[in-house]
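The methods section describes the discrete structure representation at length, but only in general terms. The central task, working out the structure tokens from the amino acid sequence alone, is never made concrete. Nothing conveys this as quickly as seeing an actual entry. For illustration, here is how one protein appears when written out as sequence plus structure tokens:
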Amino acid sequence: MLKKTNLYLLICISLLALVILSVAVIRVFALDASTQPKELADNSSLFESVSNLEALDLGLIDGQDLREMNGIEGESLDVATEQVQDVNVAISLRSIQDDLKIKLSDSSNETLITGVNFTVTIKSGEKTFTYTDSDMDGIIYLPYVEAGDYTVFLSDAVVNNTRYSADRSQTITVTDSIAYAKVDIKDEIKTESEINVAEEDTKVQDVDETTDISAAVEETDSTPSEEETFDEGISDEAEDLLAQIEAETNASENEKKIAGASSGTLTAPAIASDPQYVSSHSGVKGVDVSKHNGNIDWGAVRASGIDFAIIRCGYRGSSSGALVVDPLYYQNIIAAQGAGLSVGVYFFSQAVNVAEAVEEASMVIELLKGYSIQMPVYIDVEKSNGRGDVISVEDRNACINAFLVTIQNAGYQAGIYSNKLWFENRISTSLFLNYKIWLAQYVDIPTYTATRYDMWQYTSKGSIPGIAGNVDMNVIR
């Protein structure tokens, strides 16, 4: 009997061991199946017939899977010993013509991420390229890119216990044509608090841009006496006044009048009765202003008889090329329109290629959101001692055209501002006669005849109620 009992016990133990072994085997197979990504398991046959780019677009593969397939690795961090903050990076791509701009933003607030030297891998066909955000401004710009499809991957970056990673890549098609349409630029617009203003806002006035009485005196009176010598340290206004007194009292005044008339400048007695002067100055009067004019009493400006204002909305930096909003733009456009003036805007360009010109136009369009303007949008092209001065006439013409067409395609009237010297020598002005021409020449009677002009800026030293100091004065023909 004892033997039978031992036999039954042995059989039971064997059966229990078999059951335990079977359960263990089943769990192992189940665990192996669970570690396989569901998307890859469900779509493995589909991947055999589509490319990586097509799979990405279809949503069949994404994030870490595609990064690993393309050999892109992220930085590691010992999460057991350090507290880690994860930031999800949104990759946005933009191409205007034969270029590629990569923007890296915090997906939670859509702001560019600065202070991180990101690394991106770009794949196009069989080619692979790697670039870094060396200036750490959240933007990687490639100006010369062949037409084709490009996919951009972001490598993980760890800075100060913060891990930056993108959960998906982005694909874009670069073309060699241009659409002349607004691009998303709002996250690139800077305020002056973010730049070195002295290096970026550097518009200057060419010495031969204007002709005035003081210039005529210097040319005709080669040997002034000690009493007649002007103090180089005095203000422009005082120098002009001394020049006028000198012109009126000098023994050779008749010769100076002839020289002045040939350059478009007349002495005071001749002005009132000169038909050319009367005709040149007849028309609707207006001002153009920027931050340099300070706070303006627009009610007083309107009451003085001024009908319109052209307001600087922004500029591209002469050194870095940053896009900067004029700090008094919003204040000026709201108050000027509130006072009943017709309003237009201008943008000081430093574009060196057509892509940058489209960006500048896009910035203006962005800044005009919510405002209705009655006057044109002008591109201001003149000397700055900056990046825009050194390009060729052909490249400058292409930039001007890209700006004007983009503005016009957005539904605004477009125009170009420059001075006589640049209109005659550094711009092919005849190419832009379908747009408004705004001439700057500071004389009594304009002498510019290369093309027509629609508005004339006749002085930078005007004086009107509501604006402290000098102001640019204009007349519409």
Remarks:
- The longest helix spans residues 2-34.
- The chain has three domains: 64-177, 214-263, 274-476.
- The mean pLDDT is 82.
- The first strand starts at residue 85 and ends at 94.
